[in-house]
Design a protein that fits this description.
Elements: E1 2-8, H1 20-23, H2 28-42, E2 44-50, H3 54-64, E3 70-74, H4 83-92, E4 96-100, E5 122-125, H5 130-143
Parallel strand pairs: 1-2, 1-3, 3-4, 4-5
The structure holds 1,3,4-trihydroxy-5-OXO-cyclohexanecarboxylic acid (DQA).
The site of 1,3,4-trihydroxy-5-OXO-cyclohexanecarboxylic acid has 10 residues, from loops.
Length: about 150
């Protein structure tokens, strides 16, 4: 059975009440439940972590090495700023799928740049909570060696 860490960054603990017009009304707990359930269906054991602190996110990426088969990462605003997170991903040799609830390319210019994309397998954004489900599908496809994944 594959194993994946769903890692959420700053302010995502406030999902459900934070700018619902942008991020929807689903809470982080509900998103995580969705991921646990979807993971069971497609054969990947999901664990979750959220932190508002860049260093804790880096520690979690380091700790995933040798334990997880991949990471689904919504780095929140650190996506657009953190060379340190990008370097952490490069250091662990794990496939990372970048996710965002919103379509960052249709928003402010400063959200168009992603340091995570430079080292991620790919990016899924704009599908709300479904972005996480699609990311899990993409990760499992990749781990199973599907052509085009
Ligand atoms: C986000 C998009 C980021 O630009 C923003 O800073 C977030 C959430 C998203 O999921 O759409 O915190 O990553």
């Amino acid at each position: 059975m594959h194993k994946a860490l769903i890692l959420n960054g700053p302010n995502l603990n406030l999902l459900g009440t934070r700018q619902p017009e942008v991020y929807g009304s689903t809470t982080l707990k509900m998103v995580e439940e969705l991921c646990f359930n979807h993971g069971k269906k497609i054969g990947i054991d999901v664990s979750t972590l959220q932190s508002n602190h860049e260093g804790e996110l880096i520690d979690a990426i380091h700790a995933a090495k040798g334990v997880q088969n991949g990471i689904i990462l919504n780095a929140g605003a650190y996506t657009h700023t953190s060379i340190a997170l990008m370097d952490a991903i490069s250091s662990v040799d794990l496939p990372v799928v970048e996710v965002h609830l919103s379509n960052i390319h249709a928003r402010e210019q400063f959200r168009h740049k992603s340091y995570i994309s430079k080292v991620a397998l790919g990016q899924i954004c704009g599908f709300g909570t479904r972005s996480y489900v699609l990311a899990l599908d993409a990760l499992v496809g990749y781990l199973d060696g599907e052509v085009g994944a």
